[in-house]
Amino acid sequence: MNRKQLDFLMADLRRRYLPYRRHQTDTALGRITAETEDPFKVLISTILSQRTRDEMTDKASHQLFARYPDAKSIANASLSSISHLIKPVGFYRQKAAGIRNVSRILLSEYGGEVPRTFDELLKLPSVGPKTANCVLVYGFGIPRIPVDTHVHRISNRLGIVKTKTPEQTEAALMKGVPEEYWIDLNGLLVRFGQSVCRPIGPKCGECNFRRFCRYYKTVVKRG
Ligand code: SF4
User: Fold this and answer.
1) Of the candidates 140, 171, 191, which is a domain's last residue?
2) What is the pLDDT of residues 139-173, one digit of tens each?
3) Ligand 1 pocket: which of 153, 158, 217 to mutate (most atoms <8 Å of CB)?
């Protein structure tokens, strides 16, 4: 995709889905951020959301934070109590141990605060590139590109990147997309992926990007 097409894409997505605040996306993470504006809760919710549906993340996060609202209280909680509260999410036992471990490290090494850099976040257990980038964008408003399944799928379909894994997509997007677009890209593509470019049955007939979309030209049109 060339720069002109990318500008058209972003202008169209912004016109369609803005104004929205990053804190008001239709995702569990967006709702947690909107309610709390707390990087710690964004971090913990993002860990809970790994391989889990949004509504389950929502439920588990609310139950957890109602009882344990910060790093100190989670660090001192029993594993059985945390597990019970986050039971709606997949792998809840491992995640209970993971978030307590993270909370303890935040307390001992960062005074209970969440670090603001990608490299420091990556050093935390249970934190990979997507989680670190979510915390930076949604917790701190720092430009990065969190790559979830929507961003990975749509970027490849459109032809912005040609990659096999979300990690490769993240690197390719941050290299090829101007920084001015980074902070909104995740939120816009998630909305676009939920409503138009769905995982199964994308609504290509009502999409404005057909003329340059690689998937449309190579798969749908030839279909
Ligand atoms: S044309 Fe189809 S595949 Fe391409 S971006 Fe639009 S909805 Fe997705």
Assistant:
1) 140
2) 999 999 999 889 999 999 999 999 999 999 999 99
3) 158
